[in-house]
């Protein structure tokens, strides 16, 4: 390196005069190549790309073109910045939100209602544990809708419990039937049902009979006449689906909320609209009617 440094600077050379011109020519050529390489290496600013001997020689001997700059380091294809491919990301579609339907509120008579509905067995599966569940909720709502209990929100309150227990406690074997169809009225449980050929074909369902002072009489009767709508002279009200069986007493659709227990009829058998229609369709003049039991408070 010292030799190259001396040659490049041109200091301290002693040679014969005959050989002076040839020696100078050789030294200039060798020194120029070495300095060109050092100069380029220094100007590259610590470039980590290694340069081979062949590349260095070619660069030193080549005359720079008109537009080339001697201070510009040789470029290498591999020195160009590598463009990394943009990773492809798969965006999963968001899952649809699940809408949770609020459950029924639990009432103070939950276990009583569950017990009665389990015995009736016609309104869906229930678990008798005193705790509201989705299945209990559905069964209680269905029961309330069937028997006109308002609101039909699935809450096991006093009215729902009262109706459910009355229906579950009704003993259809206590009705004395005859040949053909018999309408059976259970005053004790305030229920009514129809038996035909020894089989229950309607009900049991709810009813509301005579209030205090107008108790519905017990005994065996038969339907005397029928009318889709009968006018009551003493009470000035229409009686839909009328079927009279004892004096002015008969079956008809109620004109008030049937679950208001503080009131009652004047001896008639009040029915929900759907039940009044069903009994009217089944009954005929001469159909047997059997009334038994006792309504509390009458």
Automatic annotation (TrEMBL):
This is L,D-transpeptidase family protein. Residues 48-70, 77-102 have a biased composition (Low complexity). Pathway: Cell wall biogenesis; peptidoglycan biosynthesis. Keywords: Cell shape, Cell wall biogenesis/degradation, Peptidoglycan synthesis, Transferase. Residues 181-292 form the L,D-TPase catalytic domain. It comes from Phytohabitans kaempferiae. Residues 40-111 are annotated as: Disordered. The active site is at residues 252, 268. Gene3D superfamilies: L,D-transpeptidase catalytic domain-like, PGBD-like superfamily/PGBD.
